[in-house]
Specification:
2 copies of one chain form a homodimer.
Chain A: E1 5-9, H1 14-20, H2 23-29, E2 34-38, H3 41-48, H4 59-73, H5 89-102, H6 104-119, H7 128-137, H8 142-149, H9 152-167, E3 175-178, E4 181-184, H10 189-198
Parallel strand pairs in A: 1-2
Antiparallel strand pairs in A: 1-3, 3-4
Helix pairs in contact in A: 5-6, 5-8, 5-9, 7-8
Chain lengths: 201, 201
C-alpha cells in the first residue's frame, strides 16, 4: 500500500490555496491519500530568516502578479484579499480540533472552506468569529469549536506539528513530502506527478 | 514586428543556466529574438535583502535537490559545481566586451560556453584566467578580452546595466521581460509560452 502524501500549508498562503484545490484529485489518480497539515509560516520564517513575499522589496510586487496569473491559468477562483498576509493560528487550531472531534474528512472540508473564505470572499480569517462561522457553515457547533481551538491541548498539538514540520525540512507553503521526497510550491506539482507515476524523479 | 525577449541571468545561477539552454529555441518558435543580459545577483540581493539560495537554512538543502531534479527532468547536463555560488563580474564584463567587439551572436556563444564550463565541467569561472580561456576556446584573442573586460568603460556599462535591470524590477535569475510582462524563474517558461502564444496571460 503506497504511503500518504503529507501536505503542509499555511492558510494565508495563496500558493497553498491553489494546491488545496488540486491535491486530492492528484493523489487519488495515483492511489494515494493526503494528510492535510496546517503550519504557521511566521514560525517557520523566523527559523530560516525568510520574510512573507509581499514584504520583500521588488519581489513582493512581482509575486502579487504571479499569483493572479497562476490562478487565471489554472482557472482557480482567486481575489487578492485586502488583508494579506495575516495570522492563521486560529484557523489552524480549529482545523486540528475538528479533526480530533469530527474526523479527517470533516477537517479537510473545513480547510477548503477557510481557503475559499479568505481567497475568494476576502473574509479576514484571523478573526476567531470568522473561523467559528466558517465551521458553523459546514455544520459544526460554533461554541464547541471556539472552546476546542482555545484549549491548551490543541495549542500544544499545533506547536508540536509545526516543530515536527520544520524538523522534516518544511520551509514554505505548500510543501509536500511523499515517501521522503520533498516538493515545495504549487509549481512543483508537475515534478510531484512524475514522482507519483514513476516512484522516482 | 514583435519585440525582443530581455533575458537577465547571473552566470552562477543554475536556473539561469537551465533557461539559457532553452530560451533561444522558445523565442524562435514565436518569431522573437533574445537580448542576453548578464546581471550580478550579489548587487541585486543587497537591494532586496535576499540571500543566495545555498546560504538560506533548510531551503538551501532543498534547492540543491531541486536543481538536480529539474536538470534530470529536462535532460540538461548538470554537475553541481564545488564552488557555488561565486562572483561573476569577470564573466559578465567579458561578455559585454565581446558583444561590443564581436557582436551579439558571439557574445551569446561565449555566455553558453561559460555556463557549460561552470555547470558541467566545474570550472571556477570567477578566475580571470578561466574566463579568458573560455573566450579563447571560441576563437577570441585572450589578451584582447582580458584588456577589454578590465576597461573602465566596460565596468561602467555593467554597472549601468545592473542598475537598469533593478529599476525594471529584476530581482532574480533567470528573469525575462517580454513586452513589459515579467517572468521569474525557469519554472515560469510554461507561463511565458502562454504569453508568447496569446499575447496575454
Amino acid at each position: 500500500m503506497a504511503g500518504s502524501i503529507d501536505f503542509y500549508f499555511d492558510f494565508s498562503s495563496p500558493y497553498g490555496y491553489f494546491a488545496s484545490t488540486r491535491i486530492d484529485e492528484l493523489a487519488r489518480k495515483y492511489g494515494r491519500s493526503v494528510n492535510w497539515r496546517p503550519v504557521l509560516l511566521g514560525v517557520v520564517f523566523k527559523a530560516t530568516g525568510m520574510a512573507p513575499l509581499p514584504l520583500i522589496p521588488i519581489k513582493g510586487d512581482y509575486s502579487m502578479r504571479d499569483m493572479e496569473r497562476t490562478a487565471r491559468l489554472h482557472r482557480i477562483p482567486y481575489a487578492r484579499p485586502a488583508v494579506f498576509p495575516l495570522p492563521t493560528q486560529g484557523a489552524a487550531r480549529a482545523m486540528l480540533w475538528i479533526r480530533e472531534a469530527h474526523g479527517a474528512a470533516k477537517a479537510i472540508e473545513f480547510a477548503k472552506a477557510v481557503f475559499r473564505a479568505y481567497f475568494t470572499d476576502g473574509i479576514n480569517i484571523s478573526e476567531p468569529a470568522a473561523v467559528t462561522q466558517i465551521a458553523a457553515g459546514i455544520g459544526i457547533d460554533a461554541v464547541a469549536v471556539n472552546e476546542g481551538m482555545n484549549s491548551a491541548s490543541i495549542k500544544d498539538l499545533l506547536r508540536a506539528d509545526v516543530e515536527q514540520a520544520m524538523a522534516r525540512g518544511v520551509f514554505g507553503s505548500p510543501f509536500m513530502i511523499i515517501d521522503g521526497e520533498p516538493f515545495w510550491g504549487f509549481d512543483r506539482f508537475d515534478q510531484m506527478e512524475v514522482f507519483l507515476a514513476n516512484g522516482r524523479i
